[in-house]
Write the structure tokens for this entry.
Amino acid sequence: MRRVIVIAVLGAATAAAAEPTEPAALAAQAHADLGLSVVGVGYERPVAAHVAIEGQAGIFGTYFLPWFDRGDDVKGLQLGARVTWFARTTGHGLYVAPYLRGVAVRGGEGGQSGEGLGVTAGVFAGWAFRLGARLDLRAGAGAQVIHFDADPFSASTPFVALDVLLGYRL
């Protein structure tokens, strides 16, 4: 019976040692952002035990606004920043992330076209999942304000914000 107990304990210890351990602290990450209105890449750096900041660039679009009579469909480029607070120092679990983006957009429909600038700002709350030793997935929802003027195309509206972010720990 002792042999069975020793073998079970050694087997459990070996299995636990083989699994990657939860990181003790936030780490810098490279991001792929696949949210509702953006597809972007970013770099995030921890600035405190529970807080990280990110700079981001990518494409922006409002294909969804006409579906709800909230504005026009435009496409363009975006530069943004976000601050993320994590409930755990590991960077997993509950998070809250306010963000701000500047956008340069272009619209075209029915023989008309327009170019302009805008801004989108909002906040997400969600959950950060550990997918592996270096890979994380954040999924969240929140609210945002979208404002742009690309005469004759425009929007100035609150809207739902969806956050899907794939992170790679550097």
Summary: The chain has one helix and eight strands. The first strand starts at residue 29 and ends at 33. Helices lie at 2-18. The two ends are 46 Å apart (CA to CA).
